[in-house]
# Entry
Amino acid sequence: MTISMLGHRDELGLTEGQLLVDGAWRDGTENEQWTHVHPASGEEVGRFAVAGESDVDAAVTAARRAFDEGDWPKMRARERIAILHRYADLLREHADELRGLQALDNSVPLSFGGIYTTSVGAAADVFDHHAGWVDKVGGETLPPYQGGDHIAATFREPIGVVAAILPWNAPFLLFAQKLAPALGAGCTVVLKPSEYATFSVLRMVELLIEAGVPAGVVNVVTGPGATVGEALINHPGVNKISFTGSRAVGKHIVEASADGMKRVSLELGGKSPAIVFADAPNVGLAAMTTMGGLTLGLSGQGCVVQSRALVQREVYEEFLAGAQGMAAGATYGDPFDPGVLACPLINSRQLERVSGYVEQGNKDGARLVTGGERLDGEYASGNFFAPTIFAEVDNTSVLAQEEVFGPVLAVVPFDTEEEAIRLANDTKYGLGATVFTSDVSRAFRASRALRAGTVGINGFTLEPHLPFGGFNQSGLGREGGREAFEAYTEQKTVLLPLTEELM
Ligand code: NAD
# Structure
């Protein structure tokens, strides 16, 4: 059976993608296009415009004008709230269509739509959540410090033009995590989707316009990061860069933003640990949950996937057996088939990278328990990689330290709680962790000691109102919750003297 996306593409009516500049959809001025090659079938499923430098400039100029002269930043809270809620409803109405477009983009299977975190429903909830902050995030009045009679008040002003740059792996949620607080705060936006997940994002933007977001408030430039993203992050008209993606590009953005002192929010990668103590309520379930992150949906291509399992020696073999069982149950193929649970790697470059990490693991003396190679036969047309487990991994080795971004689990044994915490924190990252234990005190002790932005106890999830982000090199700032909304504002202090001596 060969995998083909062309029938699904025609059913969904996917046509060519364009840029959105100042309310008008159009091609790039250089007439360049990107051909999207589907990761499961290897077919060319669509094309979209590649923005040139002048298109990026036009998009930023439009956003600048909409911010400096337009109504959006000054719009009454009531109207902005209504638009954000209307948009959340539109997302829910179009959930099936969006999931189909995502499958055509990145091959994330429709079956994964039931996982809340990356669903269209979660994206809609993020818009509803941030609509709630629009009329609540404000300032305070403060008493004089050193005498004199004045009123001092602080205000939260929208930060200005935001460059929002998305990765390919969870377009619904990550679009929402940026656009909802940015728009809610009164900012205008130039959005750059990943070149590997553009069509679903373009449809999300069309729905924003339908919800009533005025022309110029959201602009879209599509194409590769090295040219389009680069032009955007270096544009002097941008006030803030909100980026989700790899640590390497995040680091580059910090450097590039220094000149203009642009504000920066970064959601980067991780090497998050699952820590399984011998007193875990169910070791088999802990193993299935951990390996499930690598064999369901994104096939390990998730920022907070727990690709490093630290397992207490007493239950080490039991854990490995459970993880192997989960790996054996992974199913691949056409993402529109409800029986397909996992996706291929996003492109041939990623296939090479993951194969390289497996080679390195073997070289470093880790024990390959299962997998370790590309799937062939009926899967040869795509970038499918077998679920892979390495045991007896040295925590200082490449496999335990670097983000593989594929279905590869590194299992590291430990003896004591202190050792587990030390190993868990011995990483440059710090995005998430899960602690599996029945001991409540240990659960809290370990959670507090872990240098990670989100810690789950016997399970892990993300919700729109909970701050999410990284310690260390997993990022800067948080998405979700009040802090995320405030990150799209600048604080301003206004002083009003009440007596003539102070004037
Ligand atoms: P990536 O860094 O390759 O690309 C992300 C985006 O940046 C894309 O739109 C890309 O075109 C753009 N880009 C690339 N080079 C650029 C440049 N020089 N200037 C400006 N933009 C540029 O990442 P990816 O492969 O799309 O996504 C995977 C990475 O994203 C992983 O590291 C993963 O952990 C991370 N991620 C983090 C989170 C989080 O919330 N922390 C969520 C999802 C993904």
Remarks:
- The domain at 6-268 is CATH 3.40.605.10 (Aldehyde Dehydrogenase; Chain A, domain 1).
- The radius of gyration is 24 Å.
